[in-house]
Specification:
Elements: H1 8-28, H2 32-38, H3 40-50, H4 55-65, H5 69-89, H6 93-110, H7 115-133, H8 142-146
Length: 153
């Protein structure tokens, strides 16, 4: 593969790190006090799920999220932090890429009516797929430095 300025593996690392920075920004801009103390994030999601055109979204929310709103708030907020750190540092990168892909798909389904968010989730999911199948942890990562996932080279 011919590239300009960096090698193909280095460009994939740039893509992986950029995706990680995107997750960190998502975490940074959240009102944590609102999410953890006032339940604003889960309340917003409950409103969206309650009006959703697909019944399985409302049913899934009612069974999984509504009974444990405080726990789910922590899961969502700290999942974004963990994904961001994992991708930027290249630590457990395949796990972070799969986790991020699943979280983006969940956001995509939940917010199917909010087209302002759909582009972001679709692009993040696409980057996750490309980085996963291109094994973007081979360069500039703790995974590469420690030989973790070396069997996939």
């Amino acid at each position: 593969m011919r590239t300009i300025w960096l090698s193909g593996a280095e460009w994939l690392a740039v893509l992986r790190i950029g995706l990680g920075l995107w997750w960190l920004e998502s975490w940074r801009h959240k009102d944590k006090k609102g999410w953890f103390e006032r339940g604003t994030g889960i309340a917003w999601a409950a409103d969206v799920a309650g009006k959703h055109r697909w019944p399985f979204v409302k049913g899934g929310f009612e069974k999984v999220v509504r009974p444990r709103p405080r726990l789910m708030a922590y899961v969502v907020v700290y999942a974004e932090l963990a994904l961001g750190l994992g991708l930027v540092l290249g630590f457990l990168t395949p796990v972070a890429l799969v986790g991020g892909l699943l979280l983006n798909l969940l956001y995509l389904v939940l917010m199917i009516h909010d087209w302002a968010e759909q582009g972001q989730n679709a692009m993040m999911a696409l980057i996750s797929l490309v980085a996963l199948f291109a094994m973007a942890w081979q360069t500039w990562s703790l995974d590469a430095a420690t030989g973790l996932f070396g069997q996939f080279r």
